[in-house]
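Hi Y.,

Following your request, here is the sequence exactly as I used it, all 545 residues.
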Amino acid sequence: MLFSLLLFLSAMADVVGLASLIPLFSSLLQPEFLFAHPFFGRLLEMLHIENEKELVWLFLGITPAIFILKNLVTFVINRLALKWVFGISQQLSAHIVKHFYNLGYEYLLYQNTFKANFQIIMLPVQFTTITLRAVMGIISETSVLVVVLVLTATFNLKLLLILLAFSLPVALIFSRWGSKKLELIGQTRNEYAPKNAEWLHKILDSYAEFKLYGAEQAFINEYLHIQQKLNAMRFKKFGTQLYPKRIFETIAVMAFCSIGVYFFLTDKTVESFLITAAWFGVIAYRLNPALIQLVQSNLDIADSANTIHLLHEHITNSKKEILPPKMIKMAQQLELQNLSFEFDEKPIFSGVSLLLKKGDRVAISGESGVGKSTLGKTLIGLLKAKSGRILVDDVELEFGQKQLASVGYLPAQISLLNTGIYENVALTLNLNNEQKERVEYCLQLSALREFIGNNKQIGLNGKFVSSGQQQRIGLARALYFNPEILVLDEFTANLDTETEAEILENLKSAANSLSLSIIVFTHRKAVLELATKHYELTQTGLVQR
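Below is the corresponding structure, written out as tokens. Let me know if you'd prefer a different format.
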């Protein structure tokens, strides 16, 4: 309500500025009218204005002052409106991020994350810069239009009818035609833009392989193919937006000429025509942009139809109350009972049963693709098993409702931040001394002594550290949060023999002193020495070795 009032005040300031031109033109074309007018005549008498020259000087001084004041008022109001608009954008971003997180790990794992990235980043921007701006334009320009039309009707009803006869049908027809066209364009843009970003990422991220094998052109061509479709949509959009200004300019000229024909056919004087022409010029100065803005705003809202639909879906789902799962600590044992998992109705593994007592160190090997990583993610609650049960001290875990607490997890691919090593381990910024000491202890266990006291920046995706150091940073992170169960997925794959041996010895020592339970998924024989139990995962379950 307050926002609409601000826009109305801004529009009225424009009208006041417009209205201030009328006395100026009247003083130039028909000064005796103002001296004879009951209100203006008394006002001029109070100001001791006695002749036409003084009258013109008066309005030449007042008119710029009114316009300066008008523009200052509209500037302040528009700044307040912009602040409100970008506050809305911030709220929308929060809703969309929350919605995607509410969808869970399984959704993000199997869906195109470029689609999520595009919607999180671009939907709030599109809504605020296109949709809200269009709504603001409609509120503001409708206010101006109504006031201008009322003033025109008061001055000359026939002039108003001529303007409406020329402008209104064209505005309605053009808005209806353009809206359907731009609604389809907006939907197509939101479909292809994430694909465009995905292919560009592939081209840049895989530079070494593409260049080495001469494969870059095929992928660049695919990117350009999608880019061409996007550009075709943009061309249609901006092409459609070119028409309103040109059409309404032509209509204004035709209306002006029609008024002239009317005056001369009815034997009106040239002087009366000039006064009406001055009125027409002042009105067209503001009426024409108002009509153009209204049509353009209507087209922008049509272009945003798909954006509005997606935002409504995100906001509705983000407001659904999703209670955090109850975290269950393991006091004695963890048991898997006949677990099975499917992806796209294709079985990955089945019949997995395992008993892990506190302090046990279990190694699980198996052929590539048999589902070791999937089993690990199911165990820690990221993925939901098709069937079977996970029990913690006889309490059954329920996906999304009851989850295993105090777990340290090191996936095969570690996600790294473009910050220092300390921040990557603790997953926080601005560490205090106690946190730094904990990080350094975990760096020691992970054979990263060279970084103790040296918070090195690791770059985007860890490009300033080796693949082996990246894995060890991930291990330090898994240990940092003081887990009771440590789940490690191929955590020594990129390590040399000496470093691997040191880390395994450190983990044995930590497991013994802290009663730490470890489940490790591995191909490497050396890692099997860490374990007190060794199983092989097959499609039909675990086989003890």
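The mean pLDDT is 80.

Thanks again,
Q.
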